[in-house]
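Contributing: when you submit paired examples, paste them exactly as shown. First protein:
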Amino acid sequence: MTKLVLSNIFRFIALIVLQVLILNYVYLGGYVLPFIYILGVLMLPTNMGKNITLLVAFVAGGVVDIFCNIPGFHAFSCTMMAFARVLFGDRMLTQGDPDAIVETPSVRQVPFQTFMGYAFLMSLVYSVTYGFVEAFSFGNFWMTLLSMFVNTLLTWLLIMLFQLLMPQKK
C-alpha cells in the first residue's frame, strides 16, 4: 500500500514538473497546449474513494494553476475530468464489474482498446472544460472548438506514448 502511494506521489510530481517546465511552453500555433499531467489522475487506483480522487485532481490542477499564474482553469478542468472518471471511467476500466480493482490503470493492466477509449474520453472532458473556461465566450466558437479537438488529440497521443514507453514492472 505504501509503495503504491509513493509511486503515485512520485508520478504526480514528475508529470507536473514536466507540464510546468516544458509543455506549458509548447504552444503550437498559439492555440494548442498538451496536458500530460492529467495522466496522474488517470492512473489513480479504481478503488480509491470518490472524494479523495476529486481532491487529488483539484490539488494537481491547482498546483499547475499556481505555476502558470492562471486563476483556477486547470483546477476546475481537472476536477471535472476526475468527476467524469468517477462516473464513467472506473466502470470502463473494470469492465462493469463492481468488485474488480485496477491498482494502476495502464495499457498493461487493462485491455489496450479499453485504456485507449478511457484516455480519450478523459482527455476530451478535460480539453472541452478547459477550452470553454479559457474562452469564456462563444465569440470564436469554431476556433475554440478546433483548439479543444486538437488539444484532445495531442494530449491523448502523449498519454498513449507515455504508456507505451513506461517500463514494465517485473
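Second protein:
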Amino acid sequence: MLFKFFRLTFVFLIILAAMIVANAQSITPDASTSNGKTNSNKEDLPKNIKESLAKSRIEKEKKEYEELLQRSKEALKITEELEKSFSQNNQLSVEDQKKLDRLEKLAKKIRKELGGDADEESEKKDNLYSMQSALEILQNNSIKLLDELKKATRYTVSVIAIQSSNALIKAVRFLRFSKN
C-alpha cells in the first residue's frame, strides 16, 4: 500500500512538473529582444511617428555635419596660428605644442567620422625635412580638408578629406617630435 502511494505521488509530481514547464514556455517573453516584447517593424508604426523619427534622424545628421565643418575650421585656425608663431619665433613654444596636440585630436576625430583609418603607406613614403615644410603641409591640407568637406554633403565620404586628415596627423607628429 505504501508503495502504491509513493508511485501515485511520483506520477502526480511528474505531471505537475510537466504542466509548469509547459505553462512557463507559453508565458516566457521573447528572448530576441531586451524588453521581452516582440520586435515591431517600422511598418507597424503610425505615419506621424515614422515622420517624426525621420525628421529627428535628419536633424541629427545635419548637426553632426555642422560639427564636422566646425572641427575643420578650428583645425585651419590652429594651423594659421602655428605658422604665425613659428614665423615670429622660428620655433614652437610649449603653447604651440598644446595646439599641436589639439590639432592631432581634431584630425583624428574628423578622420574617424569620415570613416577613415590610419594610412600606413603615406606615412612610410612621405618624408618631412624641416619644420617649415611641415607647417606648409599643415596649412595646405587644412585648407584642402575644409574645402573638401564644404563641397561634400553629409551623405558622402570623401577620400580626399580622409587623405588630408592623415597628412595633417603625420605633419603634426613630425612637428611634435622633431628637434629642428
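If you have annotations for the second protein, write them as plain sentences, like these:
The chain has a mean pLDDT of 81.
The helical segments are 2-27, 47-89, 94-113, 120-125, 131-151, 159-177.
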